[in-house]
Amino acid sequence: MLSTTSDYALRAILVLAQATDGRPLRADQIARATASPSNYLGKTLNALAKAGLVTSTRGPFGGFALAVPAAELTLARIVDCFDEPRPQTRCLLGRAPCDLRHPCSAHYRWTGIKAARRAALADTTVADLLVTAVPNQ
Fold it and tell me: What is the 3-state secondary structure (H, E, C) of the chain?
């Protein structure tokens, strides 16, 4: 349900969150660690920097680092840089009109699915993904 760009961005943020020595990581290092195309990831990292989620430093010791603590950075903030939440403007079944006053048969269920997806992204931080959890038996 995520775009390719959001997937790469999330992977890059996770790599940066795990960098414990405090030094910025170069885009090519992050690309290798995430198995992402280097040029594409470079543009993605620059977009994250523009959004204030990572910092970007030029020079031989430059690179990218988290600008927001992992415990405060929600997945929604990352994904929203590339997959902006959009209001439903067309009927899922291709019927018109389809809104709260004239819902199609899929309208309420689909609205619930979108809300649940959004809530999961908004309620999960980068730090949450890095915690080793034992699955319920």
Answer: CCCHHHHHHHHHHHHHHHCCCCCCECHHHHHHHHCCCHHHHHHHHHHHHHCCCEEEECCCCCEEEECCCCCCCEHHHHHCCCCCCCCCCCCCCCCCCCCCCCCCCCHHHHHHHHHHHHHHHHCCEHHHHHCCCCCCC
